[in-house]
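Input/output pair, single chain:
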Amino acid sequence: MPDSDRFIRQQELVPREVIADVTATVIGVGAIGRQVALQLAAVGVPRLQLIDFDAVDASNVTTQGFGNADIGHQKVDAAADAVRWISPDIEIDLIEDRYRPQTEIGQAVFCCVDSISARAAIWRSASRRCRFWADGRMLGEVIRVLSVADVVGRDHYTTTLFSQSGALAGRCTARSTIYTAIANSIYMSGKREGSRKGYNVGRKHGRRRRW
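Output:
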């Protein structure tokens, strides 16, 4: 099938010319980040940057979508292999490390880390260097997606950040489900405009806290 035919059914939603020059940076390639990378490859993003310091362990097969053959490999390498299976010609830059303030990033940044304190630190460094920002938050069967693409969005997003002690509590064995991660990634990769409130989907368990 010619490459031009691959995108024919999404042309009006994601015009090729709009994303032709985009480099998308995914920070954190776990349950959400791996799925976001796959979705971005599927819609035709030409350049992808994956940032994560961690390696795949056995529990990640159930909760994050990695395969048994990925166990022991770096998450960025395993995710890149899956991305190339979808889009063989995509350019991929792999950073096997934590995100650092001096790290060069793309125009679109997808923040998929697992703590609010990490999000806040990355936002302080990256917010003025990207045109689009998407943040996916998940706990068990609960997701929240926020995006920023304009000044109003930037101002609102800072109000969603708080101290780690105020984060929604949850059992470590209920923090990640693959079907919730897939839903989260679809929201994140499908959002093209700024959002003041983001999406809240699912059920909140226990006492109400910020997330």
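The longest strand covers residues 132-139. The CA atoms of residues 117 and 164 lie 6 Å apart.
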